Each structure stands twice: as C-alpha cells, then as structure tokens.
Amino acid sequence: MSEPEMTIPHLFRCPISLDLFEDPVTLCTGQTYDRSSIEKWLGTGNLICPVTMQKLHDPSIVPNHTLRHLIHQWLQLGPQFHPGNSATIDSLAALKHTLQSQEDDTLENKLQVLEKINVFFSGEYSSFSRSCFVQLGLLPLLLELVFGGGTIEESHVVSNNDHMKFIEIALGCIVKLLHLGYDLEALNIIKDDESKLATFVVLFEKGTITVKSSLCHIIESASSSETTQELCYVFGNTQKLVHEIVLVLVQNCDASEDAVKAILALCSLNSNRESLVREGAIEGIITYISMISSSSGNEITQIRGQNKKLVTSIAMGIVVKLLELESGRETLVSHPNGVDTLVKLVFSVKCDQDCSDSAVEALSIVCGDYMSAREQAIGAGVMTKLLLLMQSHCATTTKSKTRMLLKLLKSKWIQVPK
Length: 418
Description:
By secondary structure, the protein is mostly helical. About 60% of the residues lie in helices and about 5% in strands. Residues about 1-5, about 80-85, about 150-155 and about 295-305 have low confidence and may be disordered.
C-alpha cells in the first residue's frame, strides 16, 4: 500500500511538516515531532515547543519507540487493518478528546464514550488499535477520572448507578491497559494525592464485586514494578484497605481469588507483612481455605477459570511468608482451626505438591516454636499424613522437609485412640 493511497492519521503526522513521522522524537513538553523537523527548528535558536509554545527547560529529544512501532504496524497492516484503516486511529483520538472535554461533561455522554472505547479491547479488534490508546495517554486520563474527582463526584460514587457503571467500565479499561505492560508509573498518582487514595479505599469498601476485582488487579500490578514499589507500600499500610481486602477474601465471592492475589502482591514487600497480619490476613486465609476445601466431591472445581488446588497453593504461600513474623506465628497457633487446617493440607486430593510443601514448611515453623502446636498437629493426625506424603511421588525437597518435621515431632509421639 503506497503512501499516496493512504490517509495519514493525525496522530501519525509531524505537527511541523504535517508528513508521516519517519523518526518520531519527544520533547520535555511531551509533544512529538519528526527528528529532522524539530532539529531544524531548534537549530535556528528557537527554544520553545512549536505546539505548546512552552519554554524548553531541557532541549534534549527522546526517541518515541512506541509511536514508531505503531506506525510500522499501520504500514504493514494496510487494508487488513479493521475497522476503517487510518480513520480508526483518528476516531480513537476523538473518543479520548471527548472523554476529557470540559465542554460537554454530562455523565451520560462520558458513559457512552467509555462504552465505545471498551469495545476496542474486545477480541475482534487488533492489538494495534488497543496500543494506540497507550500512545494517546488514555491510562492517566482514566485514572484521573476514576480517582481524581473529575466527572465523578465522590459523594455520588456509590449512590448513583450510572456513576458505578462508569467506574466499572473505566477500571476494566485500566486493567486491560496495565496488562499491555505500559505506563505502570502512571499509577503513582494514587499515592501522590491523599484524596485519590481515599477514593480508592471508598470504592473498595462500597463498590460492586466487579469494581473490587479490578482494584485487586491494580494492587497486583503495583507490586510488579520498581517504579510503583512505594505505591505498593502505601496500599499495604493503609489499614482500612487491607481490612477490606480480607473481607472480600472470606466472602468466597467471584472476587475472592483476586483478593488472594492482591494479598500475595502486598506480601512481596517485607514492610507490608506486619500490617497484613494485624488486619487479619492469616485468619482470613484459614477461613477461605476451609471454605473452598469443604466443597462436596473430590473433583477440581473451577473458580473463575483457575482450580481450587492452585488458589489454595497461592494462599498457603502467603501463610509461609507471614509466619516469618512472630506475630504471624502467634496468630496461626492461637486460631482454633489454624494448625488443623495445615495438617489437612499436608496430604489431600484437593492439594497439589506446592501446597503440600508449603503446609509442611508452615507446620515446621510453628511446631518448632510452640509445644502446643506440636500437640495439636499430632492430635489432628499429622503423623499419618506425613508418612503418606513420604510414600507419594512428591518432590525431593518436600520429602526432606517432611523428614525434618517427623524428627521434630518424634519426641511428642502419642497414640491416638481409635
């Protein structure tokens, strides 16, 4: 497809030459130009941005690899790009402009625009059109709209169905953009403004299950990058937020699995673990494991696409991390079902090898510190479970941990009456 036959999208035109970018570069003002055009401009002594007319405090230019990649995809796709070739790119830019416009800011109009944007994340559209939203800066805009006030007044966040629907769709788009692997640093606006963090907590407390699920995904994303580690710390040490995550966990609802992953994400920082123990993460996990392990039948029941064995294994991994703290060990041992729950997971048809390994490790930790834990474990039949595990096809490391636990318990071996 030759260039004369194409209508070049506005997004792909240099603001100076109005031609298709050949080597897009970005100034400190955030505006992108073709390298040859902006170098000529700067070479004549102009130290202002041609579009914004802002003075350039830093005249350096940075290659815009994302835009270059999009243009390359567009040129390669040609007539196969659906729908509407270059018109689609300009229409995406128009949707974003309407969403951020202050001239027509009725919620109804914003909601209609957001629903159109959400369509472009469906499977029938190419990753190219979705990637355009990254270049257009949609993620920071959506974060501002959801958490920054904007079109959504905080007093109406939970009392208006349209507001909640807007938030659901906007958060869904945010999660999809995060999954593309871009702009994680944009999440930091939540920690940089107390009102935004407060809105995040209010939404977790009062929002729908869909909203809670999306917020869990945001927490998970915040733990995956060094640029958002401070945000992860803020999340983990916000008392009300951690408490609400634990509540979602024990509700055994569609968002419970996401809550498990959010807690695991918060556990990635040692500085968060004391807060998690204090707000009931261990008790919540024990309750959750007990609920999903007591379902009828031995089949692997699906929970939102992932099986119970995997979810239980993730939860047990969290317990092991939290048992590194003295407060965590005390909490588990003092829980009425704490040690018994670990014993049940040592060898069970509803527990995979990783889960068994974590259960043995957790028991070794608490039994090493507490005589009462040894007595509870033996009374719950741990010796039989451990011997069965030794005879199974478990990993060598698991067998090694099992031998050590058996040796630890040997001094307290008791005969349990039949």
